[in-house]
Write a structure and sequence with these properties.
Length: 56
């Protein structure tokens, strides 16, 4: 998921440099959404790992 966010970020930066404002804005918003989804899933994973703990 983080890989896709970085890919869309790079696409947005390249599109912005080349002057494609609409594509750059859309790619940046997709990258932002994917990053926050990744962040939420990461936090949920950490919490679940702490709650479950290790079996003796």
């Amino acid at each position: 998921m983080l890989r896709w966010a970085l890919i869309f970020l790079v696409v947005a930066l390249v599109a912005a440099v080349l002057g494609f404002g609409g594509i750059a804005g859309a790619s940046a918003s997709i990258a932002k959404i994917l990053f926050f989804v990744f962040l939420v899933l990461f936090v949920v994973s950490l919490v679940m790992n702490m709650v479950r703990g290790r079996a003796p």
